[in-house]
Write a structure and sequence with these properties.
The structure holds two protein chains of two kinds. By secondary structure, chain A is of the alpha/beta class. Chain A is built from six helices and 13 strands. Chain B has seven helices and 18 strands. The chains are: A alpha/beta, B alpha/beta.
């Protein structure tokens, strides 16, 4: 089974988010970056499928030079090779613009399966994977937890709302977007990190694909959210704050 | 039509889901653009999917019907909506931000060279569509440009519609061209994940724990607080993903929706997927070390600090208050 996993590098969850001058994007200067968590689950499922069925896992990411580090991390975890679509204007592209780059990079590989996370932790658009499926003319399913290879395709466990699930059968090739929590994520071993150094990491310029179009949607402005409620913050020492909170819950909110 | 097409989704029992909210968003958009509203949905025009309508127009509904659409598939729905949208040529198509819409609308949008402006929480003059970034830590305003329908999906609970019910549609049946071989996926019957032994929905008090707890070994710290408060223990998704608490204790869009008298969030940043599951709680308390964590946007009371210090102090204070 030849599997392509599309991975996004996103600002670390705990990194402070500051709005950049101009109010159109965040200040990326001191940010730490990490692998988008749902994509890490997609990678894990791909590695498990390879362990069971054999084949090759290719990881793919679009972004500036820094995204090579998540590709190296994926190689260290067990992916076989990596493709880096080098692109410095990711923020100016809409989801379709990014999906076109991914699809153009995937097409010549002719994979059996394309996996990616169901959404990114930064933009949360949740559509890039589905768009890649349409651009490649392949069937897709979203919110997948597990994938089984069958004689004529795959059988995937899909999460529905409110604690419901279903199995969905599909022919290959197909595109799946993965929900988090289906597996336990592996760590890269020292041996893995060492081996990764010898693996192929191919950089391609986004311009080479010639798929650039005018975005249909433009991000006008970012801002801090308005508060829906005015929070009473309880200050002082930890002990004082705790006592004050209990008092408030008893006499003001009357929930104790 | 060059108007606004509001799409409604049928629930398992055939009634409309999220429809009043989606319609409310459609009405705001109609007010801002001056465009008329129409409604579309997949289902029998005689079912309850099409009988609930309230207030002023839309008066027109399009009932999409086809035997191959009785079970939802992305392939089938994309084809059906593509054909309807090409026929009606709406300027905007508004969906509820449901799992179903998330599954097929991005694919539908690509057929028109468009993207989905998803999970919209507000619509402002422009029109500008507001949605959240960075797990709720920032809001972003998006603008659609160029020709082609603008696809929007509406976050559950973000819009409310207080208009009276009782209006009536003129319903146009619409039969799209769909062939069996167009549908490539075979979806199975939905089933429940596990036997629910915890009913968070009926709990009066809930103590809920998030990533800030750092490891399974620290869960007892929060359990003690829950016990002192006579509360059920719940969690945000990552805690259950990691297996630190069972999935049935998950609160949020993929878990349970709760509205207890007291919801105490410990080390939960407040990503939107979590907030939609608990923001209806009567009294919300948040303990978090980040004063800018989005959980404080919905909290009545907050303590900014290290949960490993605050939680034991709070447990002690609750016990002391009981004596």
């Amino acid at each position: 089974m030849k599997i392509v996993v599309a991975i996004k590098q996103v600002p670390d969850r705990d990194a402070p988010v500051r709005i950049a001058a101009g109010g159109k994007w965040i200040d990326e200067s001191d940010l730490q970056f990490a692998m988008n968590e749902p994509d890490a689950y997609a990678l894990e499922e791909a590695l498990l499928l390879k362990e069971k069925n054999g084949g090759e896992v290719i990881v793919l990411s679009v972004g500036p030079e820094r995204v090579a580090s998540v590709l190296r991390e994926a190689l260290a975890k067990g992916a076989d090779r990596a493709i880096h679509v080098v692109c410095d204007d990711l923020v100016d592209r809409d989801a379709l613009g990014v999906a076109r780059l991914l699809a153009a990079a995937i097409q010549p590989e002719n994979p059996d399966l394309v996996l990616t996370g169901l959404q990114s932790e930064d933009l949360g658009l949740g559509q890039t994977g589905v768009m890649v499926a349409e651009l490649l003319g392949l069937p897709h399913a979203t919110l997948i937890l597990h994938v089984e290879r069958t004689s004529d395709g795959i059988n995937a466990k899909r999460e529905l709302e409110e604690g419901w699930f279903q199995f969905i059968e599909m022919p290959l090739p197909a595109v799946l977007t993965m929900q988090s929590g289906g597996n336990k994520l592996r760590y890269a071993t020292l041996m893995g990190i060492k081996r990764a150094k010898a693996k192929e990491l191919r950089a391609v310029s986004a311009a080479e694909f010639g798929v650039d179009t005018v975005p249909a949607v433009v991000l006008e402005q970012i801002a801090l959210p308005k508060k829906q409620k005015s929070t009473q913050f309880l200050s002082g020492s930890v002990k004082e704050a705790a006592a004050a909170l209990v008092e408030k819950l008893k006499t003001e909110a009357r929930v104790l | 039509m060059s108007g606004i097409l509001v799409v409604q989704e049928a629930s398992k029992d055939g009634r409309a889901r999220f429809f009043q909210e989606t319609l409310a968003a459609g009405r705001i958009l109609s007010g801002l653009t001056g465009l008329p509203l129409e409604v579309a949905g997949v289902g029998d025009p005689n079912t309850s999917l099409f009988v609930v309508i309230s207030g002023p127009p839309p008066a027109l509904a399009h009932a999409i019907q086809h035997p191959l659409l009785e079970t939802y598939t992305a392939d089938g729905y994309v084809l059906a909506f593509e054909e309807l949208i090409r026929k009606l040529e709406p300027a905007y198509v508004v969906f509820p931000h449901s799992y179903q819409a998330r599954d097929f609308v991005p694919r539908l949008a690509v057929r028109f060279g468009q993207v989905l402006i998803g999970d919209v929480t507000a619509i402002e003059a422009g029109p500008l569509f507001v949605r959240q970034l960075f797990q709720g830590r920032l809001n972003a305003s998006y603008r659609h440009q160029g020709a082609g329908p603008c696809f929007v999906s509406i976050q559950s609970g973000a819009f409310s519609d207080d208009l009276p019910s009782g209006g009536k549609f003129t319903i146009y049946p619409f039969t799209p061209t769909v062939a069996a071989e167009d549908i490539r996926a075979k979806p199975g019957e939905p089933f429940r994940g596990s036997v629910q032994t915890v009913d968070l929905g009926s709990a009066q008090r809930i103590v809920s724990v998030g990533r800030g707890i750092k490891g399974a070994e620290h869960i007892p710290l929060v359990q003690e607080l829950a016990t002192a408060l006579g509360a059920e223990l719940a969690a945000s998704r990552p805690i259950c993903d990691n297996g630190w608490l069972p999935m049935e204790r998950q609160v949020g869009s993929s878990g349970q929706t709760v509205a207890p008298r007291l919801y105490l969030a410990v080390g939960i940043s407040g990503a939107i997927q979590h907030l939609v599951g608990m923001k209806g709680s009567q009294c919300i308390v948040a303990i978090n070390r980040d004063p800018d964590a989005p959980i404080f946007e919905v909290a009545d009371y907050g303590i900014v600090g290290d949960l490993f210090e605050v939680v034991p102090a709070l447990t002690a204070a609750v016990k002391a208050a009981k004596q």
